[in-house]
Amino acid sequence: MNKKGRTKLFAILGICVIVILIASVFISAENASLSDSEIQDITEEKSDNSVSEDVSSYVKDFVEQKGVNPDEINNISKVDFESLPKEVNIENVNNANLAIYEINYNKSDSLQDKVFVVTYAVEKLASQGDIIISQDKREFLNFGINTEVSSGFLNTATGVEGSAERGYVMMRGGSITGISTSVDFINGGDTEIIIYKNGNPVNFGNAFNSYLTGTSKDYDIQSKGIVLFEAGDTISAYVQSSDGTLLTNVITLIEITTN
After folding, report:
1. pTM (predicted TM-score)
2. Residues 142 and 120 in one domain
3. Tens of pLDDT along 57-74?
């Protein structure tokens, strides 16, 4: 029997409830004129690789958005990486972190299509430690100064001095999730690194309570969703010390997590 093939490609990011983190989705379809008995044979053949109800529900919701009627789906099965279908072409990917699901459905009474969904598998990624779920991304804002100061706004990485109004302008909404500082104390004293958002201090920063000279460091992290910012907000950093404190070589790194 002659077969005609055609391939479609989609790329998306999203989350599958409980079990899968979408990294990218490729859809590939192959049309074939099949009899009812042949369709039944294919369905039975795939049953050994059936997936959980959660995966099945997610896949059905996704393919429905791409024009596939969930009522016409015959089977959803997990694909073996050792025998990838010709419609799935993956290069330079660590397959230990991937899962591929094949969806067979009736496009018409005599026409069957195949849809392949390629995902990252959360249960495999979880063992690798610190993972940012969904589309979250970490970025870093660099501040510093190499002259002797007591208090003042830190320079940006471009060398431009910051201020209440001058700093890094956010391009996306997100949260401030970390800050670290290294500083050389000429005369020790109480010192804070204060983060400013749109000219107002936020309740998160580094603090030094040392009267020793030399290099000191501090770092703090917090969960996202506590100190929020929106696209267009300006982030700057300020060093504030007690009277008589003199310091130099301030290096501050602010971590932001964006959506």
Report:
1. 0.52
2. no
3. 777 777 777 677 878 888
